[in-house]
Specification:
alpha+beta, Jelly Rolls, 14 helices, 67 strands, elongated
Length: 1115
């Protein structure tokens, strides 16, 4: 609506006559004040800027309810005004309901009044622009007094422009100077800046030829055009315009000094070009490999050949391997560009969910990242790790990176800036976050003209100047131009213009503070090296950032992630016993290097990009890789154990030898299953001393292979023990009491309720460990689970109570499975049909060791969307402290997370939730709840657990909850649903113990690392090994073994250890072979130095939380 209150309707073009001029503009020296303003960008001077394009920058907006609202202008001198025009909120779309309704236009004797109305008070205005014609009146001060600032209230006042018009013939010449060209020169030692004179009326060419300009009464300057050079001074200067000696206009102006770059003056702006990729997500892995070729890597090679200063970063080494498989002809070119640092590849194999991987799987990210590329390409660096997409960091990752020779981490979705991220042992890496990795690209931050880019760079560096100064960080600042699947950005012109401007300013001999920083293409490594120079005192970050995207893996891809977790157990065991096998042979000729490498790479192949376009294909590819890794690990392990078993001296007169192996680095007693073809009708188990070992036959199969279960007690660490299957029956007593709803042994008194366990009473601790008032122990329940695995959410999307169902509501009965129960264990089962599947629960209680297994089977899950299943273990604790295993460590909830929120933002908001409050969590082998009286440790076959009651009116005690399954959708708009129909199996082992997780963690790890039994069918003729042996012994209980393996580069033996309890330790390692030399190396087996050894032993120090790697040469 463009109508005048006092004249006929006008168009925007008709608003201003060529015979009049708006004198209420800041450029003519007019100033303004107001009753209040909403904020700095809504200041009163906006009504004098001649602009009304943006609500955020072009209008005056009062503060709320600060009445009366008014805005005043001072024309600077008295002028004869005949028309006033006001532009209200409606000049922009959808603003008409905020048009000023009631107001007065007044003239004043001063800015403080008194005020007289120039027109009748306006009431009920609905127009966007109001034009108020008055009798020509002399005035200097004008006020708009707002009595109703919007159509329905007076909360705020809003005005874009107040224009005051005078006839040209009644206005002296108006003069102003525009310095926006930002040009400077050194004129014989005087710094001058270019100004564009604004003169009104605009002079004709002949009139201009008559004009002269004087600056501060200096020598007259004859004007050829309106562009003039004016000296830069510390005080305002007077510009005077004259014709034939008569002054026609003057104006006081303040020529701007060159931009003061402050701390970043003469520094460096690094333009980093990178491309973020998932293995897939864009499409299937195969299609994405092709996309990465055509859209990222091949264009990057072309750009780098055309311009030698262009650098480009791909975030990991897997993409290099894939590209070279497609383009072997590019090998020499890529090797050359990589060796010079022009083409940068990240230090890891891919970009995983760090806390999902086992500790050794995380280490292999560096084996098949930095170590591999440095072996492939002499001169390659790979000193920067990338993981910009995943909002999660595990607390030992900085140590793993640092000890692999990777000092830098480029991340995202985290508080902006530079910080040392420190692991609990004190080792750290320098991390840099730009906020969100796509911002520079998607906001076109540096794609404007020179003036725009100067403003952008100045604005960004100004935010960090104080922090850089205080921390003494060198004046290097970076912009990361990255996005999904992109090629190198072309900033050639921007850099050229920037550098030309910089060179020009530098040539003027200005003080350093006015010299802009250099702008150049750069690699992340160059930027990190630059800011690390000297001794900056970076901020320090300590602890875990729990992953927000954890629903994408274990809960929504149960079978695939189960295979991954099993591979993480099997592959170190396969390495350990393959190494022992080779050492017993006296040669590594048959050590399965290649098979192990293939299996390790497959076990970490899945990155963070499950789902996406054609996600069903991607998910299947990932699952097949992980199942290959599991199966290959199992095969290699079995082969090595079979070989070792043939070298053990046995006594066939005692029966069939069964050799049990322990891959863990401590002595243990655990159940084991042997698959044996039994030639006897009656038999029993004995140890080498002839002591009867209670056993059960759990399976009699059609191929006459029986599964025989027994408890192997006091198993040697990293070794074996021999048992015999002996003919004849031997009695073994069972001191337990079992009925359909009660069980008791020397450890526990257990009560069964409908749907779970009502009670577990620990007889030694004299404690009831369950609180079953809301959930029963081992009970399964289901909720609605709407959300995605990954996405732009800033907190984990929690389940809700719609469709809530729990097994106990249906009152199922328990059955004592007498056919499965015996001298080793007692088994109970219960089955209940729920709406979307049938739940079968099995409780397995071991009669002679302190262990309860809870086995869950979801039968016929129908794949309904947005459902979630959990198991509950409610703990009878008022103030339980929760801890759980992370890769190569243990996290205590509320203590070991990074302090406060992570900061930074996603596409959907800011990450403001304190990290200690993030849940659920990624769990390795176990989770523990502990009080001052007792603790409970539960091993987990799933990757994600919670401990806080997620239901309405939550319980105030810990409820350990493995998340069994969730049917959510990929966050890609064309992505797949993660429905997982079919049957799903789970297993959890439970132990109550003395307070503190340190009293339960071995149990939690053991449950997921079962003993292995090998039936020795035939011993070697020259078998020399004793019936029982530990191949490696460690003197410290707090130090655990990660792996023992053949060295990647020679025939030495690698031993990797870590402290799990947070204690500095002196440790001795004893081996079954004599040691010639020992080196302490970094985590990827490089940069070793010799430490003393003697015979088959060496001693060393392991710091608290430390991960240490040693290289042993056999004698």
């Amino acid at each position: 609506m463009l109508t005048s209150l006092f004249i006929c309707q006008v168009s925007a073009a008709d608003e201003v006559s060529v015979e009049e001029v708006n004198v209420a503009l800041a450029k003519w020296g007019t100033t303004s004040t107001a009753s209040s303003n909403y904020g700095p960008s809504y200041k009163a001077s906006n009504i004098l800027d001649g602009r009304w394009a943006s609500r955020e920058t072009d209008k005056w907006n009062s503060a709320a309810t600060n009445e009366p609202h008014w805005v005043s202008i001072d024309l600077g001198t008295e002028r004869t005004i005949h028309k006033i025009v006001i532009k209200h909120e409606g000049v922009l779309s959808d603003g008409d309901k905020y048009n000023t309704s009631d107001f007065r236009i007044q003239k004043g004797a001063s800015l403080h009044g008194p005020w007289d109305d120039l027109v009748s008070p306006v009431r009920g205005n609905i127009d966007d622009i109001t034009i108020h014609e008055i009798q020509p009146t002399n005035m200097r001060y004008i006020r708009v007094l707002i009595e109703k600032g919007a159509q329905d209230n007076n909360l705020y006042a809003r005005i874009y422009e107040v224009e005051a018009y005078a006839r040209i013939d009644r206005v002296d010449t108006l003069l102003d100077a525009d310095f926006s060209a930002n040009k400077y020169r050194n004129n014989e030692g005087t710094l001058e800046t270019q100004a564009r004179l604004n003169v009104f009326p605009v002079p004709t060419a002949s009139k201009l030829a008559e004009m002269v300009l004087t600056v501060d009464n200096g020598e007259p300057i004859k004007l050829d055009d309106l562009n003039v050079w004016i000296p830069v001074k510390s005080d305002p200067i007077i510009l005077s315009l004259a014709i034939q000696g008569k002054k026609i206009a003057s104006r006081s102006v303040m020529p701007p000094k060159p931009l003061d770059w402050g701390y970043f003056a003469d520094g460096t702006i690094h333009i980093i070009c990178s491309s973020h990729n998932d293995i897939a997500w864009f499409d299937t892995p195969a299609e994405t490999i092709a996309r990465r070729d055509h859209a990222c890597i091949t264009p990057a090679l072309k750009r780098m050949e055309e311009r030698k200063d262009v650098t480009f970063s791909m975030e990991n080494v897997l993409y290099l391997l894939e590209y070279l498989e497609r383009h072997p002809e590019k090998r020499e070119e890529i090797y050359r560009l990589t060796a010079t640092g022009q083409f940068d590849w990240g230090a890891t194999y891919n970009q995983p969910y760090e806390a999902l991987l086992s500790g050794e799987q995380l280490v292999r990210e560096l084996y098949y990242g930095r170590k591999l590329i440095r072996k492939m390409i002499p001169g390659a660096s790979a000193r920067v790790a990338y993981n910009p997409d995943v909002p999660g960091r595990t607390m030992q990752m900085p140590q793993i990176l640092a000890k692999a020779g990777v000092p830098y981490l480029l991340l995202s979705r985290h508080k902006e800036g530079l910080a040392n991220w420190e692991s609990p042992d004190g080792s750290s890496i320098l991390a840099w976050s730009m906020g969100l990795y796509v911002e520079v690209d998607r906001q076109n931050m540096l794609e404007g003209n020179l003036a725009d880019n100067i403003a952008t760079v100045k604005g960004q560096t100004a935010k960090w100047a104080s922090d850089y100064d205080q921390r003494q960080i060198p004046a290097d600042f970076a912009f990361l131009h990255s996005d999904d699947y992109i090629s190198p950005a072309d900033y050639d012109k921007q850099i050229q213009d920037w550098q030309a401007n910089r060179s020009k300013l530098a040539s003027l001999g200005l003080p350093k503070t006015y010299i802009p920083p250099t702008m150049k293409y750069s690699s992340p490594e160059s930027f990190f090296d630059a800011v690390s120079a000297g001794s900056p005192s970076f901020e320090t970050i300590e602890g875990e950032r729990p992953n927000l995207w954890l629903y994408i893996h274990g809960p929504t891809h149960h079978k695939a992630i189960s295979a991954k977790r099993q591979a993480g157990v099997l592959l170190p065991a396969a390495e350990i016993f393959s190494t022992v096998d080779a050492l017993l042979c006296g040669s590594f000729n048959y050590y399965p290097d290649n098979e192990l490498a293939q299996a390790w790479q497959a076990s970490i192949y899945d990155d963070h990009g499950w789902g996406g376009v054609n996600g069903h294909v991607t998910d299947q590819v990932f699952r097949e890789k992980l199942e290959f890794a599991r199966d290959k690990g199992n095969k290699i392990l079995n082969e090595s154990l079979q070989n070792i078993a043939t070298r053990i001296t046995t006594d066939n007169s005692k029966g069939i030898p069964v050799v049990v192996f322990n891959a863990l680095s401590w002595q243990r007693s655990d159940p084991v299953i042997a698959r044996v073809k039994v030639p006897y009708d009656l038999f029993h188990m004995v140890d080498t001393e002839g002591n009867v070992i209670p056993h059960q036959v759990t399976v009699n199969s059609k191929d006459e292979i029986s599964e025989i279960q027994f408890v192997a007690e006091n198993m040697p660490s990293l070794g074996y023990k021999t048992f015999y299957l002996t003919p004849g029956k031997a009695s073994s007593s069972i001191n337990v009491s079992a009925s359909d709803n009660k069980y008791e042994n020397k450890f526990y008194r257990i009560t069964f309720g409908s749907g779970g366990l009502e009670g577990i009473y620990d007889k030694k601790l004299e404690r009831e460990i369950l609180r079953a008032d809301k959930f029963l122990g081992g009970e399964v329940f289901t909720m609605q689970s709407v959300g995605h695995g990954a996405g732009e959410f800033v907190e984990v999307q929690q389940p809700t109570m719609q469709g809530f169902e729990k097994v106990s509501s249906h009152k199922p009965k328990w059955k004592l499975e007498k056919s499965e129960s015996g001298s080793v264990k007692t088994v109970y089962s219960s089955t209940q049909k729920l709406k979307h599947c049938t739940v079968q629960q099995r409780i397995v209680i071991y009669n002679n060791i302190k262990r309860i297994d809870c086995e869950i089977l979801l039968i016929g899950w129908d794949g309904t969307k947005n459902r979630e299943f959990r198991m509950a273990l409610p703990i009878n604790m008022d103030h339980g402290e929760v801890a759980y295993e992370v890769p190569m460590g243990v996290l205590e909830v509320g203590k070991d997370e990074i302090e406060g929120p992570s900061g930074g933002h996603s596409g959907g908001g800011s990450y403001m939730q304190p990290c200690k409050d993030v849940r659920p969590r990624e769990v390795q082998n176990f989770i523990t709840s502990s009080s001052e009286q007792f603790a409970v440790t539960m091993s987990s076959s799933v990757a994600v657990c919670d401990w806080v009651d997620p239901t309405t009116h939550p319980a105030d005690y810990p409820i350990l909850q493995p998340i069994l399954l969730a049917s959510r959708k990929s966050c890609h708009w064309e992505g797949n649903w993660y429905l997982q129909p079919g049957d799903h199996e789970y297993s959890f082992s439970i132990l109550s113990h003395e307070p503190g997780w340190k009293n339960g963690y071995r149990f939690g790890i053991q449950a997921n690392n079962p003993l292995r039994a090998i039936v020795q069918e035939k011993a070697e003729r020259r078998a020399m090994l004793p019936p029982e042996q530990s191949f490696f012994n460690f003197s410290a209980d707090n130090v655990l073994l990660s792996t023992i393996k053949k060295c990647e580069d020679d025939n030495s033996v690698i031993v990797r250890l870590y402290d799990i309890e947070g204690e500095d330790t002196s440790i001795s390692l004893q081996s079954f072979f004599d040691i010639k030399t020992v080196q302490h190396t970094n985590i990827i087996e490089e940069e070793g130095y010799v430490i003393p050894s003697s015979g088959n032993e060496f001693k060393t120090e392991i710091g608290h939380h430390s991960i240490e790697t040693f290289k042993l040469w056999p004698q």
